[in-house]
Amino acid sequence: MADTCKSLLELDLSGNQLTGGFPPDFSACSSLRILNLGRNQLSGDFVEQVVGKLISLKELRLAFNNLTGDVPLPDLTSSKFLEVIDLSSNGFTGSLPAGFCPSFPFLRKLQLADNYISGSIPADLGNCTNLQSLDLSFNNLVGEVPLPVWSLPKLVDLVMWANNLSGEIPGDLCSKNPALEMLVLSFNNLSGKIPESFTNCADLIWVSLSGNHLTGEIPAGIGNLQKLAILQLGINSLSGNIPPEIGSCKNLIWLDLNSNQFTGEIPASLASQSGLITPGIVSGKQFAFLRNEAGNICPGAGTLFEFEGIRPERLASLPLVNSCPSTRIYTGTTVYSYQNNGSMIYLDLSYNQLTGQIPSAFGVMDFLQVLNLGHNSLTGRIPNSFGKMTLIGALDLSYNHLTGPIPDSLGTPSFLSDLDVSNNNLSGPIPITGQLTTFPASRYENNSGLCGIPLPPCGHSDHNSPNTNADSRRRRIAGIGASLLIGVVLSVIILFLLALALFKIKKERSKSEELANGGGYIETVQTSGSTSSKLSESELPQLSINIAAFEKPLRKLTFACLVEATGNFSSKASSDPAGSAKCTAPDSRTAPSSPSRSSSTSPARATANSWRRWRPSAKSNIATSSHSSAIARSAKSASSSTNTCGLAASTWSSTTAAREPRASTGPRGRRLPSGRPAGLPSSTTAASRTSSTAT
């Protein structure tokens, strides 16, 4: 092995699944300059036993393994040519060792991020005068950053976010570090003001000071930073106006000023750099964006981190502010290569005290993807120009005082996946264009005049005009009152109709019972050549003839025939149960004969009563009232002889005909209808079922 690797210059075994230690035989690779064992599962103390003996080593990359113990910098002092030491994302503990810089005179890059290093930063770290990149992020470091570290002359990237560092940023930072490009100190306990000397850091690309306790105003000279692409000052105590000079940073693509105390209006100049950004200004930087999806519980739309050397699983558990966990993490490498010069892609001004209207100039930011203006005191309308932001994905305008309708143009952007306009004074129907109707109702709530999907439907046609909360309240009360009134009126109408129906049913039932008991008599009514009948409500004795029960008109009888049939109204003819007669009417029809109704009443009286109580119609050929009187006088002397008319003396008993259940043979062999005539009351009884057949 020793003879084989003597000429080996570079060994890259990264991104495998290697476990355990590193073979001791590799210590014989005396010419090895680059060793990359990152992204494995190596463990043990092979750094001291093997790596420390590689005297020609220039780059050592052991990130993303399972190495533990103290930071092994003292074990590498034999490798005096080391330029890059990357021990990120392991399990190293203890404090950062001091006094190692003289052993590494060529050290350019020291990365110890994502470990468990505690204590303070040693001041003699400033002796690494060739150090260009220092990354101590995501550890447990405390105390102030030593001034010699701030003053490293060749420092380009100073990244120490997510620690407990305190103190102030030196006022002469950029005077001593003119080559500084990245200053990422977010989520520490830094205090004081942003130094005015930032104007001298002409090469600054990424400035992140979010999550500290900074006060004062943003220096106006920051607009001189023509290379500045990312400016994060959120979650501090900064105040004053947002300087319009920021719009002069023509390469600014990410501006996060959320959760401060900024006042005044939003400068329209923030959109003035659109179309001027140089493609690829921050290409090649590792980043992680922690998306805030906790709604109004946690401030801001999210946080952008420099992500080189950080394990995603540890980042997910990072408590940012107010113990708000991140809910979604996006990682990658910055590649901003627009076909044309682009615009700002991220703008978060939420949780401030900004007033005035939203600049319509924001609509020209063609590449804007996140716009958060929520939790301010903005007024006016949502600009129609927002429909031109074709790449917008998240738009938050909640908790302001915006009025007017939601513009239809807002449904134009096809990438809009997160919209919140709740808690404003918006009015009118929610446009059905695009995906505006697909967002939950909570994204539109507490707007007095908004209606339509996903909110309740619009009830009035005047929703396009602005409405106040009082107007909406009055409309709701009026609507409720009208609904109650309509309900009461309908209830009264229904009850009235029900009572009327019950009354009619009861009345019909009474009539039926009256008819069943033999009540009522017939009144004829002439209707267009035909005769119809209707019941009169007058009560008459049960011997009355219920002509309405017959399906056919009454047969026409002559008075002579009637006298002949009753034997001149003889009592014998009326009382003889076997007596029968026939009488041929003028229309040649023969009337059926029936037995006597009752034996308790004299035949003559029954016959006379029957005749007296029958009212003939106008077309009957029966005798008139003078004949009726003669009939009454002759009834007492009626005999029992049978006449030649063939009609029984008691034929006119209305109840007699009703009791014949079967068909009988009529005079001259004609078969009569069976059953009782239609409409005749079923309660009618006959005293006798005997009938005679005419001979």
Question: What labels would you give this structure?
Answer:
single chain, about 700 residues, alpha/beta, 15-stranded parallel beta sheet, 35 strands, about 20% strand, elongated, BRI1_island_dom, transmembrane, signal, protein serine/threonine kinase activity
Instruction: List unreliable stretches of 5+ residues.
Output: 461-469, 518-556, 574-695
Overall residue-averaged pLDDT value? 75
Instruction: Please report the number of helical segments.
Output: 11
- Total count of strands: 35
Strand content: 15-25%
Could you characterize what this model shows?
The chain has 695 residues and is an alpha/beta fold. It has a domain at 551-668. The protein contains 11 helices and 35 strands. It has a 15-stranded parallel β-sheet with strand order 1-3-5-7-9-11-13-15-17-19-21-26-28-29-31, with no helix packed on it. It has a 5-stranded parallel β-sheet with strand order 10-12-14-16-18, with no helix packed on it. Strands 20-22-27 form a 3-stranded parallel β-sheet, with no helix packed on it. The longest helix is centred in the C-terminal third of the chain and has 48 residues, at 469-516. It is elongated and about 160 Å long.
Q: Layout of helices and strands, plus pairs?
A:
Elements: H1 2-5, E1 10-12, E2 19-20, E3 34-36, E4 41-42, H2 46-49, E5 59-61, E6 68-70, E7 84-86, E8 91-93, E9 109-111, E10 118-119, E11 133-135, E12 140-144, H3 147-150, E13 157-159, E14 164-168, H4 173-176, E15 182-184, E16 189-193, E17 206-208, E18 213-215, E19 230-232, E20 239-241, E21 254-256, E22 261-265, E23 286-291, E24 302-306, H5 312-315, E25 328-333, E26 346-348, E27 353-355, E28 370-372, E29 394-396, E30 403-404, E31 418-420, E32 425-429, E33 449-451, H6 469-516, E34 521-527, E35 530-536, H7 559-565, H8 571-575, H9 603-613, H10 625-634, H11 654-657
Parallel strand pairs: 1-3, 2-4, 3-5, 5-7, 6-8, 7-9, 9-11, 10-12, 11-13, 12-14, 13-15, 14-16, 15-17, 16-18, 17-19, 19-21, 20-22, 21-26, 22-27, 26-28, 28-29, 29-31, 30-32, 32-33
Antiparallel strand pairs: 23-24, 23-25, 34-35
Keywords: Cell membrane, Glycoprotein, Kinase, Leucine-rich repeat, Membrane, Receptor, Repeat, Serine/threonine-protein kinase, Signal, Transferase, Transmembrane, Transmembrane helix
Region (Disordered): 569-695
EC number: 2.7.11.1
